[in-house]
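agent> fetching stored inputs for the flavin-adenine dinucleotide docking request
agent> found them:
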Amino acid sequence: MLTCDEYLMPESADEALSELGDGKGGARIVAGATDILPWAREGRGGDVHYARMIDVSKVHELRGIAREDGRVRIGACTTIGQFLSDPVLLADSPLLARCAVWFADEQIREQATVGGSLVNASPAADTPPPLLALNAEIILLRLQSGHVVSRAVPLKDFILGPGKTALAPNELLASIVCDATPGYCAAFEKVGHRRSLAISTVCVAVLVKPDERLERFADTRIAIGGVGPVAERLSEGEKLLTGEEISVASIRQAASTAASRVASRTRREYRREVVTNFVVRGIVTALKQAGVARQKIDDEEYIHA
Ligand SMILES: Cc1cc2nc3c(=O)[nH]c(=O)nc-3n(C[C@H](O)[C@H](O)[C@H](O)COP(=O)(O)OP(=O)(O)OC[C@H]3O[C@@H](n4cnc5c(N)ncnc54)[C@H](O)[C@@H]3O)c2cc1C
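agent> prediction call returned; pasting tokens
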């Protein structure tokens, strides 16, 4: 069971950070509580008691979605549901909506925040692969000599392992700044025990920018999650595709580099096959949206598997 002496709802980062102090005084941040509550309720955390729970969902610095210097700033308290409805995200980073349709169900999506998902750092979480493909940076806030100061950490350096991040005990995750991706097509593939109410076992996020004649790969970004302790970009596969002619052979060759990333000991061969097929399918799905001729990319064995 989860209990606390005080449940606080600060409205500014200054107030929230003051309550958090050095982070060692028995305070716990909470946003949508979709990780914390089941963790305590299902007994995985045992009986948990905090002196203070600091609900950050009203903190204005952690809210909102805006274009900024050609990139997109997403407040940490943005819910996964907003990925499906926010006009800026739908226009500038539609990969996030493709991820959100696979995320839990409507009720959980309305509660679960992107900040909570990243701090929770589950190897099977859905949000890290698309955010890695969007070159996301994590903006962290802390109090220094009574002033709120920030630092930026690339997402690839923020999640350190299962349940481990670069967040210091006295910091808040304030926002995520990621690329706007005009000219790119996006795809997200996921396999889980069930389509929605289980977190994924393997997921792949793909962004593809073909050249103007739709014949070559101008840029490709591929990130995979659920196959190792942290989600990763498939940089070897990305490099193989850059400037390469769009063909089933080039797609398959790039996708084959994904198999070596599977670290899980359980069902390793199955995961290798799934992740390779998913990378193929993700690239093909994205290319189809771009209008690339079907005969260039159709691969019955993978697409309809
Ligand atoms: C039924 C169900 C289905 C689910 N399905 C999926 C799924 O399909 N895919 C998936 O990826 N996940 C899934 N999840 C997991 C969960 O919904 C996500 O991890 C969620 O995004 C966590 O966000 P939250 O706001 O609820 O976090 P919370 O539970 O509020 O917090 C999680 C952790 O983050 C910390 N924290 C939160 N916000 C901040 C902040 N701004 N700064 C610093 N620390 C912070 C908290 O202290 C805590 O340690 C599911 C969960 C449930 C219960």
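agent> quick read of the result: The chain has three domains: 2-55, 60-179, 185-303.
agent> awaiting further instructions
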